[in-house]
Amino acid sequence: ITGLKYISFFFFPDAYSYTPNVSLSLPLGMGNPCLANQYHTLQTSPVISVSSCHQTGYSLQNDNHAASGYYLPHGLRPNGAPALESPRIEITAYSQYPEDEVEESSSEDHIIKRGVNSIVTLTLPNADGYRDPSCLSPASSISSRSCNSEASSYESGFYNYDNSPQNSPWQSPCVSPRGSSSLLSCPHAGGPAGSPHHSPSTSPQIGAMAEEGWPAQPRGSRPNSPSCGGVGKRKYSFNGAPYRQTSCSPIQSPIPSPHGSPRVSVTDENWLANTNQYTNSAIVAAINALTTDGVIDMGEGIPIKTRKTMLDHSPSMSLKVEPGGEELGPDGELCHDDYPSRLALKKENYCGGFLDVPQHPYSWSKPKPYLSNVSCYSSPSLPALDWQLPSCSGPYNLQIEVQPKSHHRAHYETEGSRGAVKALSGGHPVVQLYGYMESEPLTLQLFIGTADDRLLRPHAFYQVHRITGKTVSTASHEVMQSNTKILEIPLLPENNMRAIIDCAGILKLRNSDIELRKGETDIGRKNTRVRLVFRVHINQPNGRTVSLQTASNPIECSQRSAQELPLVEKQSVESYPATGGKMMLLSGLNFLPDSKVVFVEKAQDGHHLWETEAKVDKDSVKSSTLVVEIPPYRNQRISSPVHVNFYVCNGKRKRSQCQRFTYLPPNVPVIKTEPSDEYDSLVTAGLSMHSKPYYSQPRLTPIMPVADPDACLVGAYPPCPPRHAAIPSSSPSSSPTLHDLSPVAYSKCLPSSPTHAAPPGSVVPPIQETPGRPNLAHPASPDHNSCLGMLHSQGSPSHLNSPGPHGYHPIYANSSPSSSPVSHPSTPGGTAESPFVQAYSPSQVQAAASSAQAGGSPPSLLPEDASPPSMAITVKQEPQELDQMYLDDGKLPETRCAHIACKFPLGNYLTKERHFVFLDESFSI
DNA sequence: AGCCTGGAATCAAAC
DNA sequence: GTGTTTGATTCCAGG
Fold first, then answer.
1. Strand ranges (E), A581-704
2. Bias category Low complexity: which stretches (predicted)?
3. What DSSP string describes A716-771?
């Protein structure tokens, strides 16, 4: 979207979802604090205008009322606007850009035209896999930049939207509405982090792409890495159609130019500096959010990393049988014989679904013949892999019962398998779908996702690897979707819809191969953390499909990193009075006698406000534990909680990700014994606003003072408690962001994934923030793994998730004990994972919350909740009316926030949704 | 024989 | 511009 001055999105909700038409205009780039902060600034300051009639994200929501609101951006709640038939996006090119670079025009025509062009020129076959079979180089990754430049999926999406209404339901609504309150814009704008979205300005234009993009380059004959494509330009091909890179090398220059914004790996050091570069991504993200549907466009567009999933939608999706065939199998592969019959059916369904999708006139990938005969899947398409889906919806709740270990050495293609990902306990990760009472088996999909601060998306440098053998008890088979390999595992009713993931290994692709892909902007260096992403698609009687997704805690896949970097999995104290002095026990890995613990506080702009080295009890240092004395805060007279970070440092570049710590006003009692107490205390602390919100960012038009992010923290109980008796031991990590975060929807589904706190660019140390904090209450909890989640790459703090398209920004809040409301002793299963929290981070809000886990489910305060979970938490529960009352009264003074926080049960209040609602309401005043 | 691993040598990019 | 360090990849070897 290079050079966009205005981007107008018109969403037309599908018939099922009713959404009001909202419009909002927001300047992108520095001008928009939200965007700038969260997404890194754009060089230019384009304005995105979105008129949306929102809608919807992924289908599921359509079925239930609550759902309808699910994808709506906060603030954009349905106001009665009539639903439109189809989405329409309008993009206005920014005049300031050179014409040649401005692909988009203000009018739809242009867009369409462009789309057409890309389509025309980009005739791509389906992506075979992550790399060209004949050439190891990654088969295209679509990267963010591509969105702009090469007929990115985004663009395609726009285009398609206009043309394919039917797809709309899938799209994410998060677009910011034009004209509407600016407040909303932030969140929306922020979005997607999905991958690639960086530069709106990316350079390579579509036109260029058309011309150069798909040259018939001979495939590389071999998988040797980088060389395959020749100098500088590596080709990647989909189905054997390699194309060269356009003038802009995929690896963009780090310079934040509007023209291409490469994803630069971000390290602690450089994160801030690069912040601006990513702003574009915000735009892209926004677009991305809008283009969820993608069925068609994906197929048509150029393989963009962001749109890898595009193939998903495309009829061309191919199921791969295994072993290995990197190539898309011929038709026959679609349904394997060896796959369980039930599964086979499922497969067919999928196929059917694809078939059901009207072919886009321009689609470049044509349905394979064999597909034509299959029909079963009612859903028109499945959500792209980079879409953010909830972990629960209605009665369904997809949870990771047993989290994978925080380290798993991935294997290269040149090596043999390094086995399946294991659980901390020595077993294997376990995933279970709760609330599904049908007798028909389902298919659980697994792919390797990112663990950085941006939105969850398929990881370009890692692929799931199917493990077979006598030690593997779980059936599985591979399917290629776009460039992402997906492992499909049966979820059988007889197994209580529970699957033991002992068949999934992780394959590392050479960085050089991937980075040379056209459009790939991510860099592989130090981008070694991944998450296992699980999805399940449940067909509903009405023909709709509910898609759920949950992601594991981060997994460090680098041999070296795993051996050398200190990892803080748990901390015994989450918050303490500013006086400090208390000893805090850190548990984790790779601690050394000379390890240092550094507390740091950064301002919103990233500069250091305070940094001090804490005293480490060297005598007690062990490889897995470290005792440190909490240093006194620089200001002993703080009136509200102050969030800082600390990290363990084993050397210059060997530092752990940042852990959160909260200094409380001296007079604030520290409660930690009971969950409820902790909760209150935490909440209180969190709610109080501080002058310097950790993660918060200014809003465009703040009506109220920026609340402390913490104030907005949302607690996190699993939104959807397991219907089954079993309580997940692990924290659910669901994708951080949902397509649509309507309060309602959220209330129902709390994201469980660890998230991080701040948006990149935000005050929070760019460094890594620990996603999931260890919950002391649950020592065994795997949560800590989340710490690994941070990636340095991409300029964003590691594991921080970038704000969702809607501006939601998940935050890792886990477990800090103190803060922790998180810790829930009551949680059964010692592995409670993590509480994590998602907060709305539209820019200003910080979030910090911890989540709860739990075992129980929080009481559902929202009326919408069709199925209120039973509350097993020991948090004091207030009348639900209270919740509503506050939300409705439109007043949201900080004090009130604090009050509410104290009153409400963690599970309910400390949820992303809640938080969101608050903001929404308050800002609406 | 092949799969898993753990280690470590070798390369190459960053510093 | 060069030496050092760090991270990525490839090899080896043993279970």
1. 583-589, 596-602, 608-616, 625-629, 642-651, 654-655, 659-664
2. 815-828, 837-859
3. B--SS--SSS---SSPP-B-S--S---HHHHHH----S---S--TTSSS-SS-B-S
* Statement: the CB of A227 is under 7 Å from strand B: no
User: In the complex, which nucleotide's C1' lies nearest to the CA atom of residue A514?
Assistant: C8
B12 nearest neighbour residue (CA to C1'): A512
Q: CA-to-C1' distance for A559 and C12, Å? A: 16
Query: Residues 297-316 of chain A: which lie with beta carbon within 7 Å of strand C?
Result: none
Query: Where exactly does CATH 2.60.40.10 map onto chain A?
Result: 569-664
Q: State the Cα–Cα distance between residues A898 and A152, nearest whole angstrom.
A: 44
Residues of chain A with CATH 2.60.40.340: 392-558
The residue ranking higher by pLDDT, A247 or A397, is: A397
Query: Among A5-9, A250-254, A537-541, which range has the highest average pLDDT?
Result: A537-541
SS3 string, A151-186, reads CCHHHHHHHHHHHCHHHHHHCCCCCCCCCECHHHHH
Q: Which residues pair with A141 in a beta bridge?
A: none
Contact status, residue A831 vs residue A860, Cβ threshold 8 Å: no
Q: A826: which DSSP letter?
A: T
Is any atom of nucleic acid chain B found less than 7 Å from the CB of residue A469?
yes
Any idea which nucleotide's C1' is nearest the CA of A512?
Answer: C8
A529 sits within 7 Å of strand C by its CB:
no
CATH, domain range A569-664? 2.60.40.10
> Is the pTM above the cut of 0.90?
no
The answer, yes or no, to whether residue A487 has pLDDT greater than 80, is: yes
pLDDT of residue A888: 30
Measured CA to C1', what is the nucleotide nearest A469? B3
Q: How confident is the model at residue A425 (pLDDT cuts 50, 70, 90)?
A: confident
A65: Cβ under 7 Å from strand B? no
**pLDDT tens column, A568-585:** 888 999 999 999 999 999
